[in-house]
Amino acid sequence: MRCRLTLITTLLLSLAVAPAGRAAAHTKHQAICPGALWYDTQGHLIEAHGGCIVKHGNEYYLFGEDHSRRNQPDRRYIACYRSTDLIHWHYCRAVVELKNPDPALFTQDWILERPKVLYNRFTHRYIMYAHIDGRGYSLARVAVFSSRTIAGHYRLLRSFRPLGHQSRDIGMYQARNGKAYLLFEDRPSGFRIAELSQNYLSIKKNICLIHHHLEGLGLVHYHGLYYIIGSHLTGYAPNADVYATARSLQGPWSRFRNIAPPQTKTYKSQSGFLLKIVGTRRTTVIYLGDRWMMHRLWNSRYIWMPLQIGGGTLRLPKPRCWRINIHTGVVSFVP
Length: 335
Ligand code: GAL
Fold this sequence. Notes:
The protein has two domains: 39-176, Glycosyl hydrolase domain, family 43 (Tachylectin-2, Chain A, 5 Propeller); 212-335, Glycosyl hydrolase domain, family 43 (Tachylectin-2, Chain A, 5 Propeller), CATH 2.115.10.20. The protein has two helices and 23 strands. The protein has helices at residues 2-27, 265-268, and strands at 49-56, 59-65, 75-83, 90-99, 111-120, 125-133, 141-147, 155-160, 170-174, 180-186, 190-196, 203-210, 215-222, 225-231, 242-246, 257-258, 270-278, 283-291, 301-306, 308-310, 313-315, 322-324, 331-333. Beta-D-galactopyranose binds at residues 50, 113-114, 169, 215-216, 233, 235-236, 270.
């Protein structure tokens, strides 16, 4: 009898403890700790790789590749999370949950990578670009999606090669006047910056071709200069990422320099996005990189760090835990 009671008590206790245990994982997050396991507010691993962050009202929305093991194998997923402090992320939904849109074109092992989202103030739509491809990455196209709301369902509108060029990894940049630009790796030549049409659904014109073979592209405008970052083409294996600067998107671009000591291979990460936080006291630019786990993509980690930037130089400091006061823009490091 006593034994049965103990068993029942243990069972009840474990039932009570299990959800709390999972919840504990996320309440522990006091800071952004690059490379560490990172849970959303429901206690699930955050799945938003190769993505971007968009500000909407007082909230930040994170979009990225969702490689969760529970995903259906014939679909590709883009997840969306929201946060007010960049530490605690609430899962909104799979904003893209797509089946092969054209089996005649894309093979079964098709891919959808590096989603980037921008709000179009002229059409009041949220537009997403992503890299869509088939086996061997030979199609090299972009996919364009649209949604009425930031965390809504993003409908695939079309896929194409920008201005007829190959396009693999992409990045996006939005100017203050509402003009938007696509950055894309164009394998034969290097990478390009192209201006989008006013509704963001097509490409208006080529702005610049940079003869450097770079991917994982990110761009920011900071104190009168454009800074562009990218990684060399080594797949999911990290390498020494580089940056260049220019006064205009057309260039001329400076020579490329390492963003971190080259032997660290960008602290085992690959660039993907630059987030600018304009605070009341300072403007902080954050590097969003991925530490890919090639055979377990769901377990890939995030290397997010505030950059040391200004006067034409950009440096990714050694990763450590940090947080940001989203109102003032001031970063503090956490032991
Ligand atoms: C990288 C790229 C990733 C993914 C990977 C596949 O070069 O940045 O987004 O496509 O290759 O090997």
